[in-house]
Amino acid sequence: MRICVFLSAADLDERYTRPAREFGELIGAGGHTLVWGGSDTGLMKVVADGVQAAGGRLEGISVQFLRRHARNGADEMLVAQDLAERKALLLDRADAIVVMAGGLGTLDEATEILEQRKHGLHNKPVVLLNTEGFYDGLTMQLQRMENEGFLPVPVADLVFVTDDGARALAHLKEAVADLP
């Protein structure tokens, strides 16, 4: 399975690096490929290190203005001209998507992926890996959107939320197996 992971390129403390490393190791140990933003900094580096250490494959998609941060030693590295092209390439190359802790860029990626899924533009499973309750506010907002009629489909049909990496990966395997 090719798993796109959206997450921060910032250097963060162990509350976030440990789960990122562990999830990367699960991806690699399962023989899967990480499709990610290609950066060799912050949580992006941590998850890629975990994948590589456990024998997985790395497919990075950097963007022109961040090219200097691209990881050397990835199995494949593409450079998009802009963020919109990067998001499209990441989605196109993935079988499934995981959103981990991140800033505005990650939030932008997550909402675009969910909007596309809502409209049926892709049927790839999406997991919100809610490390340390990072996305509690977002999940509350999504539930409010559903409850008050802003979403035409239930939140549960758009995204699976968990704080456990092994559970996230198990969900993705099952969901990808069920795809037509």
Helicity level, as a percent range? 40-55%
Name the strands of the widest sheet in spatial order: 4-3-2-1-5-6-7
The CATH first-level class comes to: Alpha Beta
How far apart the termini lie comes to 15 Å
In angstroms, what is the radius of gyration? 15 Å
Low-confidence stretches: none
Kindly report the CATH topology: Rossmann fold
**Structural shape:** globular
Which whole number gives the mean pLDDT? Answer: 96
Q: Give the tally of β-strands.
A: 7
Task: Note the run of SSEs as H and E.
Answer: EHEHEEHEHEHHEH
When the domains are counted, the total is 1
Structural write-up:
The chain is an alpha/beta fold. It has a single domain, classed as Rossmann fold. Helix content is 46%, strand content 18%. The chain is built from seven helices and seven strands, in the order E-H-E-H-E-E-H-E-H-E-H-H-E-H. A seven-stranded parallel sheet has the order 4-3-2-1-5-6-7, sandwiched between helices. Helix 2 links the parallel strand 2 and strand 3. Helix 1 packs parallel to helix 2. The protein starts with a strand and ends with a helix.
List keywords for this structure.
Rossmann fold; about 180 residues; alpha/beta
SSE layout:
Layout: E1 2-6, H1 14-29, E2 33-36, H2 42-53, E3 57-63, E4 76-80, H3 83-93, E5 96-99, H4 104-118, E6 126-129, H5 136-147, H6 155-158, E7 160-162, H7 165-177
Parallel strand pairs: 1-2, 1-5, 2-3, 3-4, 5-6, 6-7
Helix pairs in contact: 1-2
